[in-house]
Amino acid sequence: MGEEAIVRTMGLGKSFGSTVALRDVDLTIGRGEVFGYLGPNGAGKTTTLRLLLGMLRPTTGRASVLGLDAWRDAVAVHRRVGYLPGEPALYGKLSGRQHVAYFGHLRGAANDRRALSLADRLDLDLDRPAHELSKGNRQKLAVVLALMSGPELLVLDEPTSGLDPIVQQEFYALLREQTDTGGSVLLSSHVLGEVQRVADRIGVVRSGRLIAVERMADLREKSLHHVGARFADDVNAAEFAAVPGVRDLAVTGRVMTCSAPQAALDGLLKRITRHPVVDLDCAEAELEETFLAYYGTGEHHAA
Ligand SMILES: Nc1ncnc2c1ncn2[C@@H]1O[C@H](COP(=O)(O)OP(=O)(O)OP(=O)(O)O)[C@@H](O)[C@H]1O
Question: What is the model's pTM?
Answer without folding.
Answer: 0.84
